[in-house]
Amino acid sequence: MPSEKEEDPMKNVTFHKNKKFGDWIIGDVLDEGGFGKVYHVTNIHDPSKVAALKAESNDIEGGSAIKLEAMILNRLNENGPVPHIPIVYLCAKRKLYCYMVMTLLGKNLRKLKTLNTVMNNGFTRGTWSRIGIQCLYAIKYVHDNGFVHRDIKPQNFLLGYEKEKERARIVHILDFGLARPFATYFAREKKWIARKARGSAEFRGTLRYTSPNVHLRKEQGRGDDVWSLLYVLIELNGGKALPWQNDSQRERVEQMKLNLPAKVVMSNMPGCMDKVMPHLETLDYYQRPDYHLFFKALWQVMENEKITPNSKYDWEPDNVDPKSYPTAAWENPSGSFFQLDPIGINTPPTPAETALTTEKSGKTKKSKK
User: Fold this and answer.
1) Each residue of 45-89: pLDDT tens digit?
2) Which of 10, 11, 183, 263 allows an S-S link to 146, with CB 3.0 to 4.6 Å?
3) Alpha-carbon distance 182 to 20, whole Å?
4) Active site residue 151
5) Where does the record place the region Disordered (predicted)?
6) Cα 270–Cα 157–Cα 220 angle in degrees, nearest 5
7) Is 106 exposed, middle or buried (0-12, 13-18, 19+ CB in 10 A)?
8) What does DSSP say about strands 180-181 and 50-57: parallel, antiparallel, or unpaired?
9) For residue 99, what pLDDT is reported?
10) Which CATH superfamily hosts domain 106-352?
11) Which CATH class is domain 23-103?
């Protein structure tokens, strides 16, 4: 909180009810944090159409990340709406704040975990295994479009709005404020080219979930997002904590991540997942994770628990009829999506490819002037 002498950046993102943003009108506050607020908004022309307006002050350190987030979400949806990705309806920058109007979503995984009455401070295996597959699907889709998220955590995965049947049981990935492109598509060459890794990178992410590579100040690649997801699922496993769950001291957390063997970190997880962390330990920045290996492990957890994709989730009431909801994209036991490799990158760029990316980056910077 700012001191009495400091200006409160939040004052720039506090809007009165009925304020209009394009075709949208402000309603109640849904959420707020240190950087901004999220409001429920209604379409002026069609009151049955609702969305969320996210606003951030430009006075925060580094400025608002909304412009970056909207750009990435639009890129991910450029060929039409896709599963697990919210839609941006409107985005703009004002003198004091930035805002975007996007898909209205429900509770995040952290909130659902704390409210769960079936399993104390976590989820049953039948629930978190399916959540894990959905999160993995979302992460892979982001990767397949050339970005790494770099802040995978329960708060950044949200269920759909409960009154919107098409999305209510779908997990959505959000908050791309720390995202970074790791590859660029070159239409003329008809290929993706990796962005060359920096020799050293700053710490980016949330301490509890960052991969060991982040603590070593290595460039984050696709494997680091997947590693963070594994930590998230360990935490969601019926409240069985990560070894560093309640430690906020970076040096101690770092030492545990770098030194504890996989079998200790995974000690409370089902045996069918034993191969996931050892696989992640073999990857460098450029190598593609074996998403299918992770998917098959999670699907095996489902089968072991005698759970199907349309079984009831922990947070759903007993009278819910999951079969009445539309089939989701991930509900495929073969995991064909997780085998696809549209980018085809597993090695560093060649000198010629590096020159191409440098040239394109230079042109982009000139065009922004």
Assistant:
1) 999 999 999 999 988 877 788 999 999 999 999 999 999 999 999
2) 183
3) 37
4) yes
5) 342-369
6) 80
7) buried
8) unpaired
9) 95
10) Transferase(Phosphotransferase) domain 1 (1.10.510.10)
11) alpha beta
